[in-house]
């Protein structure tokens, strides 16, 4: 099994995916263990002093003005976890919780949180045992981090609350820890707060969305090319020199992908009716410009994600300087800050939802064009076998339109909202968790939209008798038929075909079929 080693300088997106989706094991580096111990010395030194230090010897949020006596501090840390584990609604997905916990561990291991090495090791042990805390849909405002979701994870470390075992059954967390030989943690000064205060949930969902969208944008280039071919469109608009004079990187990559798919096609540029076209419709001709803009949006989102992956997000944080010698001759100190605010991540999550909605919208317009006998250049109405007796793909497009309408609703930015909390101490929040949750739904729906375009385009190409599709197109048709998606014919129960097309796109089989012919797409 793959092992991810967590050090002090952050982790990569590949590490997150390996742990969240691939079940990779986690180890702490010797450097991380040393940094954890050094930072803890600073916290212990400050805790022994009479002066109040936020998160160490005070209350939290609007209650930060109260100085907490030493005998109550362990109770304070337990209480913040218990009281903040206040989520409601359905459980979030296992991969989201694993990403959330792993990213919190990443920050803990930075040496800027003051958490003891044994607490960090327990976090790794829980993940390695396949124990997944029960985390609920609602409870994060995306400022002071993803407080409620992270609190539910911390509750599991304490042996409290509920968690899912490796067998998929939800049970008391204490029972699961005992079965795997994991001792519940007894939290000390600052540790409860350090386990809750980060952007880890929204960041994990951003990283997974980017991985999924990378596949979907390439898949959309393929389906756009197939639709162009089915409509007997012109591939001249994909010429590299046209895209070089408007040098957006995503646009050029998208056009190159479409051109690679269409290489050797006998359908492009033909006409089967008496209405010659000078230009194809925007949904066909401008496919690279729209998909390319989305790709460039993804590039910006990756930049933000990479910066966040290299960050230590906590409040307060342990820094060099001050009177303690644990960090060397410069000493160490604990400082409050606002780095937990999720705005940088929330903005790109919302930006991606907008791009996903537009990609779905243009794919739906191409699909509708394939089904309309007045615009499909010789194809039968709704690609039906016997139009009138058969309805063909009429209602498949209804389903696609409903999905696109939902994508547009999901594109409304969550980060444009803010609602004050904690007696106006936390008076501006990012709503980044909400942005991430709706982006996951958007990505899911976009997959279905692209699958329906694939279903319609492959059927339309097979109805173009006497013309030879591109070799890559032929490979797609053969593969999708082998996957259980049936071709032209009389009306039948369509839902199984659509589900099979969705699985074909979602599982990467569409890209695999194309790339056997074209080589890797951009």
From TrEMBL:
It comes from the Bacteria. It is found in: Cytoplasm. GO terms for molecular function: histidine ammonia-lyase activity. Keywords: Cytoplasm, Histidine metabolism, Lyase. The modification 2,3-didehydroalanine (Ser) is found at residue 144. It catalyses: L-histidine = trans-urocanate + NH4(+). There is a cross-link at residues 143-145 (5-imidazolinone (Ala-Gly)). Its EC number is 4.3.1.3. Contains an active site 4-methylidene-imidazol-5-one (MIO), which is formed autocatalytically by cyclization and dehydration of residues Cys-Ser-Gly. Pathway: Amino-acid degradation; L-histidine degradation into L-glutamate; N-formimidoyl-L-glutamate from L-histidine: step 1/3. Signal peptide: none annotated. Its main location: cytoplasm. Belongs to the PAL/histidase family. This is Histidine ammonia-lyase. The gene is hutH.
């Amino acid at each position: 099994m793959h092992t991810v080693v967590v050090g002090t300088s952050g982790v990569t997106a590949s590490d997150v995916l390996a742990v969240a989706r691939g079940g990779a094991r986690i180890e702490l580096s010797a450097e991380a263990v040393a940094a954890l111990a050094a930072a803890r010395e600073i916290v212990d030194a400050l805790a022994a002093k009479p002066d109040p230090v936020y998160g160490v010897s005070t209350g939290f949020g609007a209650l930060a003005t109260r100085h907490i006596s030493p005998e109550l501090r362990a109770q304070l840390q337990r209480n913040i976890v218990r009281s903040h584990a206040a989520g409601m609604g359905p459980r979030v997905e296992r991969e989201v919780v694993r990403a959330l916990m792993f990213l919190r561990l990443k920050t803990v291991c930075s040496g800027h949180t003051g958490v003891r090495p044994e607490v960090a090791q327990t976090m790794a042990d829980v993940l390695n045992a396949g124990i997944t805390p029960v985390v609920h849909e609602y409870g994060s405002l995306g400022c002071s981090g993803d407080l409620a979701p992270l609190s539910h994870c911390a509750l599991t470390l304490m042996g409290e609350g509920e968690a899912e075992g490796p067998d998929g059954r939800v049970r008391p967390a204490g029972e699961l820890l005992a079965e795997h030989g994991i001792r519940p943690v007894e939290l000390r000064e600052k540790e409860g707060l350090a386990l809750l205060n980060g952007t880890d949930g929204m960041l994990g969902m951003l990283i997974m969305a980017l991985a999924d969208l990378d596949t979907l944008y390439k898949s959309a280039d393929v389906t756009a090319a197939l639709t162009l071919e089915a409509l007997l469109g012109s591939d001249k608009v994909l010429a590299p020199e046209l895209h070089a004079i408007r040098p957006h990187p995503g646009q050029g990559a998208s056009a190159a992908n479409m051109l690679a798919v269409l290489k050797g096609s006998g359908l492009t540029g033909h006409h089967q009716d008496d209405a010659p076209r000078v230009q194809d419709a925007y949904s066909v001709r401008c496919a690279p410009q729209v998909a390319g803009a989305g790709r460039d949006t993804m590039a910006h989102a990756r930049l933000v994600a990479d910066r966040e992956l290299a960050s230590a997000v906590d409040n307060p944080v342990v820094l060099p300087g001050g009177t303690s010698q644990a960090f060397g001759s410069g000493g160490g100190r604990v400082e409050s800050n606002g780095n937990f605010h999720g705005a940088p991540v929330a903005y790109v999550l919302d930006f991606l939802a907008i791009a996903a909605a537009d990609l779905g919208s243009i794919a739906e317009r191409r699909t509708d064009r394939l089904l309309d006998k007045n615009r499909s250049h010789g194809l039968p109405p709704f690609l039906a076998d016997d139009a009138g007796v058969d309805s063909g793909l009429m209602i498949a497009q209804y389903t696609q339109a409903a999905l696109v309408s939902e994508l547009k609703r999901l594109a409304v930015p969550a980060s444009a909202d803010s609602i004050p909390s904690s007696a106006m101490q936390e008076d501006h929040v990012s709503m980044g968790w909400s942005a991430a949750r709706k982006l996951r739904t958007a990505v899911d729906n976009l997959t279905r939209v692209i699958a329906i375009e694939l279903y319609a385009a492959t059927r339309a190409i097979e109805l173009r008798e006497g013309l030879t599709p591109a070799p890559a197109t032929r490979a797609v048709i053969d593969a999708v038929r082998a996957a259980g998606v049936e071709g032209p014919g009389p009306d039948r129960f369509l839902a199984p075909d659509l589900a099979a097309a969705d699985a074909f796109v979602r599982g990467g089989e569409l890209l695999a079929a194309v790339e056997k012919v074209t080589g890797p797409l951009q």
